[in-house]
Amino acid sequence: MSAGRSVASQIEDIFHDNCLRFFQNAEAKRRWSIERDINWNGVNPESSELTALIVQFFSAVEMYLPDYTAKMMQMIRHSRGRAWFHMNWGYEESKHSIVLEDWLIRSGKRTVEQVRAFENTLLTGEQWELPFDHPRQMLIYTMIQELATGLNYTNLRRRAQDEGDMALSSLLRWVAADESAHYNFYRKGVKVYLQLEPEETIADIKYVFDNFAMPARTLIPGFDECSKAIDAAGIYGPRMFLQRVRHPILEDLGITRQQLKTVGLNEKEADIIADHADYRADLARLAIYRRSYF
Ligand SMILES: [Fe+2]
Ligand SMILES: [Fe+2]
Fold it and tell me: Which residue range(s) make up the domain with 189?
């Protein structure tokens, strides 16, 4: 990176590159069609009502897409890398509620009228608002939220397989792959900020984790009840958030032991995560050594 250029323009260049790479990769490997790529013949009308409730709940979270896209876009419109990524992100997210609702109808779990009525309740109700007011904080928020959402879908997929619903299983594979690609874009972005604005970014990571809640919590009717059922079904809950979202993210960001404590981990947690990160780095070095000499 050339000297004398502002940090903001260095960050923008990397985001722009990352956005183009994301787009090329999505076009080449990750485009999928609701009609063509889902094994609709494998739908199981005997899937449990709880599964249907969870699918409906996840589609409700996806339904606030007009707010997620419009309000975020206003915040990041000055950044070509982030704004163009966000357009692609919005396109990919738009398929998620459609395909989940399709499953509800094709499985016979809900009628078309029921699905439309539920959609209407959500779309004519209160709007989602940005939970944080700085673009860097929103980047951290979306990183966390995408990993958590991907985990929700992956765990629901396991349940769909146990219940013998291959349609739901196949659609959740595509949806989870999208969420995982989104997480990857955001985590790379957070790493850029960590490199170029480390102190501010660490403070924001702490702030966002301290105030994190899944989107639309206060907007979706029955959110808390449904969250409890999802937790009881072993799909997602506070414990899983710590073990499968918060800790892996902090380990992946490659921050120091001291920074881990600054973002809110206690001594023991920080040691476990830092030791694990060191161990993984050693394994990676060993793999390079083996490739070079054997
Ligand atoms: Fe989604
Ligand atoms: Fe996503």
Answer: 7-237
Which CATH number covers residue 207? 1.10.620.20
Q: Looking at the CA of 96, which ligand is closest?
A: 1
Report yes or no on whether pTM surpasses 0.85: yes
Identify residues whose C-beta is under 5 A from ligand 1, the ion: 93, 96
Count of domains observed in the chain? 1
Report how far Cα 111 is from the mean position of its chain's Cα atoms. Answer: 29
Distance, CA 282 to ligand 2 centroid (Å)?
A: 32
Is residue 246 in a domain? no
Whether 264 maps to a domain, the answer reads: no
Distance 221 CA to ligand 1 centre (A): 19
Which tens digits make up the pLDDT trace of 56-114? 999 999 999 999 999 999 999 999 999 999 999 999 999 999 999 999 999 999 999 99
pLDDT 10s digits, 192-241: 999 999 999 999 999 999 999 988 888 999 999 999 999 999 999 999 99
- Closest of 174, 154, 182 to residue 102, by C-alpha: 174
Q: How far is the CA of 147 from the centre of ligand 2 (A)?
A: 8
How remote is the CA of residue 185 from the centroid of ligand 2, in Å?
10
Residue 149 CA to residue 168 CA, distance in Å, equals 16
Question: Angle at CA 94, nearest 5°, toward 90 and 96?
Answer: 125
